[in-house]
Amino acid sequence: MAVATEAVFFGSETEPRFEVAFVDGTGKRQRRSLRSCVTERFEDVQPVRPFRWSRGDRHFSGWYWAVTVDRHVGYESWLERDRLILLDFDPLVTGMASQPFWLHWHDGERERRHAPDYFVRRQDGSALVVDVRADERIEPKDAAAFEVTRGACARAGWEFERVGTPAPVLMANVRWLSRYRHSRCFREDIATALRSMFALPCPLLEGARLVGETLVTLPVLFHLLWRHELAADLSGHLLGPATQVRSGPAVGR
């Protein structure tokens, strides 16, 4: 379990007062101002609410093992899971946590609260708060909550992004590569040969065959694509035998 924190930050008379509640890795609950916890490692906190599974639910909750953080990260829908996969694939992302905190405020009529879907830490130390919601499923109250969250994040020096359905071709390709994200798919001898083979662009299957038995070489090839050590156009077409693969920047995970 972890720590739940509520933080209070007072704006002007025309701005809402925010309280932020979160649970960190120690299992304790705290209350303090947003201003005092903007440097908190929210990428390491525990979810502020449980992920529930019930027969007949329209949403599919679950846990995704993220290689970026070497642990499971929760999601509450397939759309959230897809966003997790994309975050895990992003070489600039170094940390992430789901349902990282509750943001509380008063809208002038009643108390409101909202739990963003993800808190993300980037390689340069910057932070991103993410809400996942398909465009066609945003109701007025949701849009209002997103805008309030955007304003609160701006005060904290964090970026905020509301994301919807990913581009289908990109998502299909990255989802496929995610099957090979685990280090068990890596073999240094084959990886070295593949890096050499694709120093110049070459069709995916042809290069894999020239290196060795495809049952052995393809998992390593896909793992290198996941790690960005090899590169291909993932947005234009589905990965296939003729996909042009080339050397890419080596990105450690």
Write the layout of secondary structure elements.
Elements: E1 5-9, E2 18-22, E3 30-31, E4 62-66, E5 71-75, H1 78-89, E6 93-98, E7 101-106, E8 111-114, E9 118-122, E10 127-132, H2 140-156, E11 159-163, H3 168-178, H4 188-197, E12 202-203, H5 204-211, H6 214-226, E13 230-231, E14 244-247
Parallel strand pairs: 1-3, 10-11
Antiparallel strand pairs: 1-2, 2-7, 4-5, 6-9, 7-8, 9-10, 12-14, 13-14
Helix pairs in contact: 1-3, 4-5, 5-6
Could you please describe the fold and organization of this structure?
This protein is of the alpha+beta class and 253 residues long. 28% of the residues lie in helices and 25% in strands. It is built from 6 helices and 14 strands. The protein has helices spanning 78-89, 140-156, 168-178, 188-197, 204-211, 214-226, and strands at residues 5-9, 18-22, 30-31, 62-66, 71-75, 93-98, 101-106, 111-114, 118-122, 127-132, 159-163, 202-203, 230-231, 244-247. The strands form 4 sheets. The protein has a 5-stranded mixed sheet with strand order 3-1-2-7-8, with helices on one face. A 4-stranded mixed sheet has the order 6-9-10-11, sandwiched between helices. Strand 1 (5-9) and strand 2 (18-22) form a beta hairpin. It is elongated and about 70 Å long. Mean pLDDT is 89; it is low at 1-13.
